[in-house]
Design a protein that fits this description.
Mean pLDDT: 84
Order of helices and strands: HHEHEEEEEHHEHEHEEEEEEEEHHEEEH
Strand content: 15-25%
Shape: elongated
Largest sheet: 11 strands, antiparallel
Structural class: alpha+beta
Low-confidence stretches: none
Number of helices: 10
Radius of gyration: 34 Å
Distance between the termini: 25 Å
């Protein structure tokens, strides 16, 4: 019986140490295997898991627009605040398939990514031909372009505007404002002042509805260094932009194209992407651990300093273009939009200076609806959900030689805001789980299961060992008492 108990104690102790050691060893072994597997799969090359996801994005992407309908145009011309109401969403599905894919010996691959937008009436408040009252952007743009020209040119354009019966505010369709329409003023200006404007058509996203592209990207494939996968090497043949006064900071092309990020992303790292919509790179800061359809993620959001005034944030001084800096919440991108006085912001001037919100009746900034965010699976860097929210505004002021501007006050007038979003669908989520998440959970389960069993066995070993020692002590004490009684002449019963 004693040998059996001793054997149990010994076996329990040995097994406990063995399982604990195997569990700890499995952590290092499995983590190494996992890292090796990710490094193998997270490379942009034909045949890899990532290539199919990268070349033909399988998850649904939506582009939604909300237009600002002006309610009091006559009062605005007399110097009153604009009163606007939000109309939307007008929703489009977005299809992205990379083309002209070319691999190079320096570990990069170049491509274009044409996008096609299809209107979804069932996810919209109305048809594309819904009308609303908005700013006459071609008129304001031309006024901006000719401010420094000779007076005779100014008078000529003013005559053209009268003939065309232009007004500062006009009725537009949603589809026309977004995708483009023939503008009579631009037609006349093109005839009389050739080269002043690039086209007789105008639209905020003109030419981008069907197979529209935003340039040629060249990114690292990750071969040899997986931490560089999908990081931009050049855009349109440039390693840096040339928009922002030759400043090295503002002209940097940093991060990815936004489709996914390098693997092993940490909470301390910035999730950085380059956005052609605002002609600059954007950093996302870690906010919290989250999940998307049961897949653990890190949530990143664009910080307040993104559109902070250069007078407050010195890093943004170069976006002021050697002029007076705009209030916080605004970014002047006219320099990269053919001179059109386009000012970008967050929707409803979220995170902007309070004066912007107060200048327009109808602004109601809401963090949940208007912030920029993205959810990233940290081990693979795959983007599972995102919301890019931006608002396009036009700088407006009274111009003496343009009578249509009346007595309008100086302001940043909102035109529309958009939400380009993605959220992984159930089919692709299950596919991702089966190929990535479930395997990780299984490995972690084996690791911690073995450690747990080892700990339980060691606890049992300690308990059994203590009991065994107590029994040995009790036996020794009993034997000693018997010997003492015999020596004293006592009879043992």
């Amino acid at each position: 019986m004693r040998c059996s108990l001793r054997l149990c104690v010994g076996v329990t102790g040995v097994c406990g140490v063995l399982f604990l050691g195997l569990g700890i060893g499995a952590i290092f072994l499995f983590d190494s295997l996992l890292n090796d597997q990710i490094k193998k799969n997270e490379v942009i090359e034909k045949g890899s898991y990532l290539y199919d996801q990268w070349s033909d994005i399988p998850v649904p992407i939506f582009m939604q627009f909300w237009v600002w309908d002006l309610l009091n145009p006559e009062e605005v011309l007399q110097g009153e605040k604009p009163a606007v109401r939000q109309k939307g969403p007008y929703t489009y599905s977005e299809r992205v398939v990379k083309t002209n894919i070319t691999f190079y010996d320096n570990g990069t691959v170049s491509y274009m990514q044409p996008r096609t937008f299809t209107f979804l009436r069932n996810m919209s408040v109305g048809p594309e031909n819904d009308t609303f009252t908005s700013l006459n952007i071609p008129l304001v743009t031309i006024a901006e372009l000719i401010q420094n020209e000779r007076d005779i040119v100014k008078d000529l354009v003013s005559v053209i505007e009268r003939l065309a019966q232009e007004t500062l505010f006009m009725k537009l369709t949603v589809g026309g404002l977004v995708w483009g329409y023939n503008d009579s003023l631009l037609v006349d200006v093109n005839k009389l002042v050739p080269g002043l404007v690039p086209s007789a058509e105008f639209g905020l996203f003109m030419g981008r509805k069907i197979n529209g592209t935003d340039g040629v990207y060249s990114v690292f494939t990750g071969k040899g260094d997986v931490t560089k996968v999908n990081l931009i090497d050049t855009w349109d043949g440039q390693k840096k932009l040339n928009y922002w006064s030759d400043d090295p900071y503002c002209n940097m092309i940093n991060g990815t194209d936004g489709n996914f990020f390098p693997p092993f992303i940490t909470k301390e790292a910035k999730a950085t992407l380059f956005s052609t919509d605002i002609c600059r790179s954007v950093e996302g800061e870690f906010i919290r651990e989250s999940s998307v359809r049961g897949i653990p993620t890190y949530r990143y959001e664009a910080p307040e300093r993104l559109f902070q005034s250069g007078d407050i944030n010195p890093d943004n001084k170069c976006y002021c273009q050697n002029q007076a800096c705009l209030p916080s919440g605004l970014l002047n991108i006219s320099i990269c939009k053919q001179g059109a006085p386009v000012i970008m912001s967050s929707p409803h001037f979220y995170l902007g200076d309070q004066s912007l919100v107060d200048s327009i009746i109808g602004m109601h900034p809401d963090p949940e609806q208007h912030k920029v965010y993205f959810e990233v699976e940290p081990l693979s860097g795959i983007l599972l959900a995102a919301g890019k929210r931006l608002q396009a505004n036009i700088y407006v002021k009274k111009i003496d030689h343009i009578q249509q501007t009346g007595n309008v006050r100086e302001m940043f007038y909102p035109i529309l805001w958009l939400n380009e979003s993605t959220f992984i669908d159930p089919v692709n989520a299950d596919k991702f789980k089966s190929q990535v998440t479930n395997n990780i959970k299984l490995m972690y389960g084996v690791e911690y299961g073995m450690i747990g069993v080892g700990c339980v066995l060691l606890i049992m070993f300690i308990i059994l060992f203590v009991r065994h020692r107590k029994r040995q002590t009790s036996t020794v004490v009993g034997t000693t008492d018997e010997r003492t009684n015999l020596l004293n002449g006592d009879t043992v019963q």
